[in-house]
Specification:
With 63 residues, the protein is an all-alpha fold. It has a domain of 43 residues. Helices cover 71% and strands 0% of the residues. It starts with a helix and ends in a 17-residue tail after the last helix. The model has no long low-confidence stretch (mean pLDDT 90).
Length: 63
């Protein structure tokens, strides 16, 4: 019985460590994606937009 309990505890600890590692990897990936998104938003907000050409005035019809 003690051996079964020990195996169960070791199994649960192993599973917990695997889950923790997977969580850590997922958080690292999410942090990388957030960093990419922040730099993209920063670039998009700081890019200068091309100036529009001034509209030409229309001539009035002399009819």
């Amino acid at each position: 019985m003690a051996n079964d309990l020990r195996q169960r505890i070791e199994s649960e600890l192993s599973l917990a460590l695997e889950c923790a590692l997977a969580t850590e990897e997922a958080l690292a990936e999410a942090a990388g994606l957030l960093s990419e998104a922040e730099s993209l938003v920063s670039r998009m907000s700081s890019d200068r937009r091309p100036r529009r050409r001034p509209k030409r005035k229309r001539r009035k019809d002399s009819s």
